[in-house]
Specification:
The chain is mainly beta and 141 residues long. The chain is 6% helix and 50% strand. The protein is globular and about 50 Å long. The protein starts with a strand and ends with a strand.
Length: 141
């Protein structure tokens, strides 16, 4: 199984199966609710490798993710479209699309023992547009 991740709006970035190592989808309701709540949040957590290019022959797109995480809410491109595809046997088996995602958290773990960096990006769909999230499965060959 592999993962593809793409962000559009602002400076577009794209990662393939060689970079993304894990994806988590979470739908979140308030813990203090005694019934199904309309206060629903949708979180997407994407984890991957930071593949440094010492000669700068390849763009390090994680720099753009880090810069996105630092954007203030008054900047127009702080909301972007994020899409994750889960691939199995060369075929898309699931796809998540968040059309108005913003960064809740971003972390980079860099150390000289592993020789490669790791990043974790936590996205959330803008709450008033949660119904715009697209979750697809059962793709035909």
């Amino acid at each position: 199984m592999g993962f593809r991740f793409k962000v559009t709006g602002g400076k577009d970035v794209e990662f393939d199966e060689t970079v993304i190592t894990a994806v988590e989808f979470l739908s979140d309701t308030p813990d203090a609710s005694n019934a199904r709540s309309n206060d629903l949040g949708a979180v997407l957590k994407v984890t991957g490798r930071i593949n440094f290019s010492l000669g700068a022959e390849v763009d390090d797109s994680t720099v753009e993710l880090a810069n996105w995480s630092l954007m203030a809410s008054d900047q127009a491109d702080c909301y972007r479209e994020a899409q994750v595809q889960i691939i199995n046997g060369g075929q898309i088996i699931r796809q998540y699309k968040y059309p108005n995602a913003f960064v809740m958290g971003y972390r980079e773990d860099l150390n000289d023992d592993a020789g490669v960096g790791m990043f974790e990006l936590i996205l959330k769909q803008k709450k008033d547009l949660t119904s715009k999230i697209e979750l697809k499965g059962n793709f035909e060959e």
